[in-house]
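idk why but the lab printer keeps eating my pages so im just putting this in chat instead. protein + PXG:
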Amino acid sequence: MSLKIWIDGELVDEQNAKISVFDHGLLYGDGVFEGIRVYNGGIFELAAHIKRLYESAKVIRLEIPMSESDLTQAVEKTVEANGIIDGYVRLVVTRGKGTLGISPLTCASASIIIIADCIQLYPEALYETGMKIVSATTVRNHPLSLPPQVKSLNYLNNILAKIEALDNNVPEAVMYNHEGFVAEATGDNIFIVKDGKVCTPPVEAGALEGITRGVVMKIARADNIEVVEKNLTKYDLYVCDEFFLTGTAAEVIGIIEIDGRVIGDGKPGPITKSLREKFFKYARGKG
Ligand code: PXG
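predcted complex ->
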């Protein structure tokens, strides 16, 4: 079945959903995006995603030619038009069509694309067994270059780290910042548990301020678990009691080994499992 894709104010059939080869999103990775889940027909944390999108756009001096409330409605309309009950929305804003040359001034107007589709998830067994991970040598973007909080179309730095993961036959890699502190994984935020406390790097360490991260912190605190945002080193990851990642696609997934060091008893730990279950129920509106 052909999907209906939203492009610049219109829902068009997938085969007619086209953008110019002169779009600076394609030519230079000039644009921003969001990846959003749909659970039981509800769009999860849509307001938070819309806010992050507009903030990312502001930082790269990209004007989104639509109000936040109109864009929110456009996302809802696209999900409905495709009959998506459980799935995934990719919301993309590109700099738009311009001429060759990186100046954004040649692009008259940003383009807005909304895709509502199914989602490719990690196999369920991986949540039971937990995942292995490696440290990447590729350093997370320096905050004085493209700020890591911006969810831009320019993912090459993270893609290089992802390739390091895949070369090691694992799905994810830890990225460190220019000072050697843990930043995040290539498409997920990082948490550890040590002595009953849940710790995650502060956003300033070079992480995207993940929506899932925020929800998981809230769920943990509501459960009277202490949550601390602090800089973490490779050492902290090697000697922690539990380790997990959070993200829109992964939700909460346990890590059982990093760089050949086994975490805990080599299975997802009790706090990880409990937070995964609580997040699962909360997201699906059963919490
Ligand atoms: N860090 C990075 C670099 C990400 O790209 C996260 C953390 C987690 O953030 P959220 O808000 O999702 O909890 C992300 C999110 C995809 C895809 O299709 C990528 C993400 C999310 C959804 C889909 O590659 N990354």
